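Per-residue structure
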Amino acid sequence: MTRFWQRSQSFCICARVAIGQTEAGRYLRVIYVPELGGAFVITAYELRGKPLIAYRRRRRRKGKR
């Protein structure tokens, strides 16, 4: 998970990134801000090409530990 900080006049917004596979088999990257009782989704998009290959490689490496 990656965190992005954006400073405004009186508060900080902590946006987080989640990557995972849907039930249909697609890989998505979702950028969201946690809220009480849920999350506010900023954007979401399908992983393709090099980002998808890098994600799969990271997942394989985590499994060997």
Notes: Residues 3-63 form one domain. The mean pLDDT is 81.
